[in-house]
Amino acid sequence: MAVATTQAPPVFGYRKHWAECFGPAPVLPTSREEMDQLGWDSCDVILVTGDAYVDHPSFGMAVIGRTLEGQGFRVGIIAQPDWRDLSSFSALGQPNLYFGVAAGNMDSLINHYTADKKRRHDDAYTPGGVAGQRPDRAVTVYSQKVREAYKDVPIVIGGIEASLRRIAHYDYWTDSVRRSVLLDAQADILLYGNAERAIIELTHRLARGEPIDAIRDLRGTAFIASGIEPDFREVTSTLLDSPGAVAPPLNPYLGMEAEACDTNTNAATDASSREAVVDEPEEVPVRLLASSEHRRTVIRLPSFEAVRDDPVLYAHASRVLHKETNPHNAAALIQQHGTQDVWINPPPIPLATEELDWVFELPYSRLPHPKYGGEKIPAFDMIQHSINIMRGCFGGCTFCSITEHEGRIIQNRSEDSIIREVEKIRDTSPAFTGVISDLGGPTANMWRLACKSTEIEAKCRKLSCVFPGICKNLNTDQTPLVSLYRRARSVPGIKKVLIASGLRYDLAVETPEYVKELVTHHVGGYLKIAPEHTEDGPLGHMMKPGIGTYDRFKAMFDKYTKEAGKKQYLIPYFIAAHPGTTDEDMLNLALWLKRYKFKADQVQTFYPSPMATATAMYHTQRNPLKRVSPRADKLPVVRKLQQRKLHKAFLRYHDPENWALLRDTLKKMGRRDLIGNGKMHLVPPRDPPKRHRVVKGKHQSFATQHNGLPKPPRKPRR
């Protein structure tokens, strides 16, 4: 096996495949008839997806398809095949190189089930919003059907579902630890993360005749290994981060001065009580991975069977995996599953600005495939006039899987490329009314933010650049984003540019000019942000800033809203039942909501998605943010349905349906003083007559209602 390097050729620097002569297709073909119209006798690559085919850069399968087309390959798409009918998988014939399989933009199980494991009745990625057009565990089912139809054709799996299941992982829906999806899907190779770089190199190498089972040095991939390669040396993970009392935790500052990646104490004043859950720089026997040796080192994680049976080893494996996510210093990982090993190469090198521009400026039609006619696809309707300006997130929120998928290093598009897309939407979209619905990405205001030192960035192992405070080496200047916003809203024909992506308000307050620009010109009446909680315990386990930072942002929001002469409201999101949250924490959050007159309509309950750090907390009742130990105190974890219901009820303290449950709980907690009809009582002493209860209607669409928001219209009396 060749040693993986931190250098990569530009994605547009490959010699194009011979089929480039066919030119770009108006839309990628989904039938033999469409292939005939293009003059194709076969496809080089066929992509199978659980989503409807929308030729838009917000849909992953369109991005991969157009990226490969841009390399000269003929790409067909089988969208939402009937997995009960084998002929659906042979609709385009046999590809010359491989089948690429993905579940779609969402994990199929999250797409199908709520956090309470109730079946959803709609699917935003399907025409008409109809549910049931993809199977549970779509990557596995589709791959098995492809293997049944074409036994000898290579199968490449990817997308969010495969990416977050590349290793032994806790599965919330079966309440068990499952093995890597590679084994269940019977796939030849797995590509994780945003896979343009890996898929381009893989496809060119296959086109040159290289067998897929010989491609073992490709970053961002996982595969079934046959032992350790001769030029690699194996290190056991427990020697690096012992799940006991032998060794201190991994040092995130390896190879740097002790203070090189310290946090800004001024930005962390309300996080001091959470320091105990964060790694501190300590000497550890892991320096071999801080030098160039990490490129030829593979870390052996505890086996699938070990992490399945031992929660401490599961938490330990999760901790080590998350430490090996910086593409500049990550080592390869290996994990035994029975008699087989799953090998995971280091993450891919992030795309440079010129490369990301190339990906987003490929010839997308920006429309659903014509075969759907005028049928609405809800996800497309929501994002058709939005623009992705960046990728990645260095926030490190433990409940979120963005970092595990896209990485912590921000990948930025150029301002000129973004403006060209604004103009393209204006000039080509038949439904455009002059409003750009979003300029954003995983986080709206991380565009062009990065470590001030490339040397420090290459050596850093921190899980977050903004927790427990903002790292002093992080550039937080958002004035370039102000310039982008101003330029975008000045494009002729553009009436409004809204910002709908999630906002890091702890970063926003570092550049008041950004907050002023945002509030004055880019808020459509309501701005959604996510403090997630008010209490230090849950916030520490979420790796979120303290509520004091929210207060600072709200003061700035209110100030600039008043100066603009507008009526605008913050819509804060909160999470119920997150690991590390007690009933007392939820009571305190409810009292905070009551004090500030917030009335949450839709609330989110913690959803244990595969591979997330918080999911490891949920499953193991241990905290992987520090060294795990069998003797460590267990985390409070909300697993029982009744307690999850209670935590949601605290968020909706104003709903009469929850009053009886809350009264019983308050009595058990010794807080009868909160039951009454006064302003500061949480719930009244008795339920209202049924005829007076408010029925949740279609007009109550806001995630949170603030005092002063317009009320939904009354129903006419009969």
Layout of helices and strands:
Layout: H1 32-38, E1 45-49, H2 60-69, E2 75-79, E3 98-101, H3 108-112, H4 138-149, E4 155-157, H5 159-163, E5 169-171, E6 176-178, H6 181-185, E7 189-191, H7 196-207, E8 221-225, E9 233-236, H8 237-240, E10 297-300, H9 304-309, H10 311-323, E11 332-337, E12 340-344, H11 353-360, H12 378-383, E13 386-388, E14 390-391, H13 402-406, E15 411-412, H14 415-428, E16 435-436, E17 438-440, H15 454-459, H16 479-489, E18 496-497, H17 505-508, H18 512-521, E19 526-532, H19 536-542, H20 547-563, E20 569-576, H21 583-595, E21 598-600, E22 604-605, H22 613-620, H23 641-651, H24 659-668, E23 704-706
Parallel strand pairs: 1-2, 1-3, 3-4, 4-7, 9-10, 10-11, 13-17, 16-18, 19-20, 20-22
Antiparallel strand pairs: 5-6, 7-8, 8-12, 11-12, 14-15, 21-23
List the defining traits of the structure above:
718 residues; alpha/beta; Rossmann fold; three-stranded parallel sheet; 29% helix; globular; disordered C terminus
Number of helices: 24
On the 0 to 100 scale, the average pLDDT is: 89
| CATH first level of the domain at 10-220 and 348-371 | Alpha Beta
Portion of residues within helices: 25-40%
